[in-house]
Amino acid sequence: LGLTLPDLEIAWNAEIGHYDFGEVDFTELFEVIKGNGPCNAERMAQRRRAHDEGAWVRDAAAAYAAKRRTATSAA
Question: Tell me: the pLDDT tens digits for 19-30?
Answer without folding.
Answer: 999 999 999 999
